[in-house]
Write a structure and sequence with these properties.
Blueprint (H helix, E strand, L loop, with lengths): L25 E3 L8 E6 L14 H8 L6 E2 L4 E2 L5 E6 L7 H18 L4 E6 L5 H9 L5 E6 L18 H7 L8 E6 L6 H9 L3 E4 H7 L1 H12 L5 E7 L21 H12 L4 E7 L10 H19 L4
Parallel strand pairs: 1-5, 2-5, 2-6, 6-11, 7-8, 7-10, 8-9, 10-11
Antiparallel strand pairs: 3-4
Helix pairs in contact: 1-9, 2-3, 3-4, 6-7, 7-8, 8-9
Length: 319
């Protein structure tokens, strides 16, 4: 027997035949060939220095894509034909952080090797996932440069707490996976860092742009300068977006909220500018705790970061 107005649970919602929702771009990987845009989740947050439910963020960001259409009115571009292969989430070890990071590095190395020309979107997790994610990515890419949006250096020592969300870029430098001079940090904030780690970054050639620099110069100037620095020295650029680079008013779902941060428009503009370069081949989005977010605001912004990234790539003819 059939009933006219019944649908499968969770699917009884209004649908406009002329609107494609952004979450429809995600197509689960079927074990075979993948598209030239791929997405993978790294739901690790046990390594967070502060309490964090960032392990729930990959699912929250995917769901937040459903709030948006695929059409950009500003550029008259529709992403409806773009296929994003969704590899799903990497299984974390329930207690062993180092084992979880090994799984991320191994899996990233495997999937990138299987689809070397793809653009990669990695959903964290806390920022500790960037160390293994970049490690796996780098195995197939040669020299990698990183442009990091963050209120914090994430150059903490590993002796006091092991591999946490405060150590990913120190781990990458000290493991010789990247060179310090190929790390660019944008959005560093007052009263969020230590002089010791600022000095460590300077000693290793890390380029640092504070929020004062962002407000004084604007993101376009900084992005152009960053690309000019890296383009002759590395083979690929990996962008790491820690959502706490945003002011607390724009990112209530970040564990380390604070005032004086970037507004969401500036971050979205920066991602758009970066994505137009062919060398920019991967982006991760980290440090969202959906359990403390307000009306999914932070996950919605993360979803928009993905759409800005894809729109710029499509506009440049790369996808």
């Amino acid at each position: 027997m059939r009933f006219s107005f019944l649908k499968e649970a969770g699917k009884a919602f209004f649908q406009d035949r002329h609107v494609t929702k952004a979450n429809e771009l995600l197509v689960p990987w079927n074990g075979g060939d993948a598209s030239n845009v791929s997405l993978i989740g790294a739901p690790l947050s046990k390594s967070s220095i502060s309490h964090s439910g960032a392990a729930f963020a990959p699912g929250a960001i995917r769901q937040a894509l459903s709030f948006y259409s695929t059409y950009s009115i500003a550029d008259d571009i529709d992403l409806a034909g773009v296929i994003v292969t969704d590899y799903g989430d990497i299984i974390m070890h329930p207690t062993d952080i180092i084992e979880s990071q090994r799984r991320i590095a191994d899996t990233m190395g495997q999937v990138v090797a299987s689809n070397p020309s793809a653009l990669w979107i990695v959903l964290g997790g806390d920022h500790s996932i960037s160390f293994p994610a970049v490690s796996g990515f780098q195995k197939n890419k040669g020299k990698v440069g990183i442009i990091q949006f963050d209120a914090h250096h994430d150059l903490r020592n590993l002796e006091d707490g092991g591999p946490t969300n405060g150590t990913p870029f120190r781990s990458l430098i000290e493991s010789s996976i990247i060179e310090g001079q190929h790390l660019i940090q944008i959005g560093l904030r007052d009263f969020a860092n230590s002089k010791v780690y600022t000095d460590y970054g300077k000693q290793h050639g890390v380029a640092m742009y504070t929020m004062e620099d962002v407000y004084r110069r604007g993101v376009q100037s900084i992005i152009e300068e960053s690309i000019a620095k890296l383009e002759s020295e590395v083979d690929a650029i990996y962008v790491s977006v820690d959502m706490d680079v945003l002011d607390q008013a724009h990112a209530p779902g970040c564990p380390a909220i604070g005032p004086g941060g970037m507004d969401s428009y500036s971050l979205l503009k920066a991602v758009s500018l970066l994505a137009q370069y062919e060398m920019v081949q991967a982006i991760d989005i980290v440090e969202i705790d959906p359990t403390i977010d307000f009306r999914n605001m932070t996950s919605r912004t993360a979803a928009w970061v993905i759409l800005q990234f894809l729109k710029a790539k499509k506009k440049a003819g790369m996808i």
